[in-house]
Amino acid sequence: MLTGKQIRVARLYAEGWLNKRQICKRSKINRTTLFNWLKLDEFNAQVKTFRDDYVKRVRTEGIASLENRIRLYNQMENRLRRVIDERAKDPTMKSVPGGKTGVLVRRMKSIGSGENQTMVEEYEVDTATLKELREMAMQASKELGQINRAAENEADGEELTIRVRPVRKRASDNDTA
After folding, report:
1. Chain segment 113-155, per-residue pLDDT in tens
2. Do both 70 and 151 map to the same domain?
3. To which H or E segment does residue 122 belong?
4. Which domain holds residue 87?
5. Lowest CB count within 10 Å: 45, 82, 100, 177, which one?
């Protein structure tokens, strides 16, 4: 049966963050002891158990989990949309063309210098936020299997060919009123 110290060392070894010298220093054991423990079947079995548990947790927790990633995308999208909604409510933006959409940002720009310097307002579409929303939606769709290869090509900027089937005209379409 392994001692508490051996179990702690097996965990450090399984995590893979420290090299053998660092493990020995942190655990206050000499390298010979570690190398002898590494020859023990029971020690190696414990290392394997810790590694297997770690791999299982990595695959099911945090961002590695599909459900968690989609939840994160949804949270980020909601936050960005809240920013857009709050901008749309800003009373100073109501008189600006497009200001009520919430996708415009106001920037102050300095023109001239010295005594002739004046500050002017500039408005532009917040393309960075819109791009982020679009990319999150694309990534979520991809991960959920809701996007086909043609849409991926379009998103990657590759040429996309769309085939359109002819639609038969109904007799009522030919009538002119």
Report:
1. 999 999 998 999 999 999 999 999 999 988 888 876 555 555 5
2. yes
3. strand 118-125
4. 66-155
5. 177
